[in-house]
Design brief:
Number of strands: 8
Strand order of the largest sheet: 1-8-3-6
Strand content: over 45%
Largest sheet: 4 strands, antiparallel
Radius of gyration: 14 Å
Helix content: under 10%
Order of helices and strands: EEEEEEEHE
Amino acid sequence: GRWSDQGKTAFEFVQSLPQRFTLVLKAHAFASNASKTTKVEIGSHTYDIQLTAGDSEIRLDVDLQGESADRITFIPPAPIPPHKVDKSNNDQRSIAIGFVSMSIVTP
């Protein structure tokens, strides 16, 4: 997996996303980001999801309504450096989302 770093994390795809799909995300939130709203932007559409401190699976049904999109952007509520949560941790990155896996499922 990977951690988000800073305020936004974008996944860009070589091909346009399907018009209708289910985004299946397995992830967890770091520290105060748990159970708060994370925004997901796909094209001009914005969705709200909530991640927990433990790994959870989110299924998000997406309909681009004729729009073309090749990027999925995650905007967490409050990225925070791990060293501010645990003084023994030297990690200076501002993280919020631990991405475990992501897939796009078409009907």
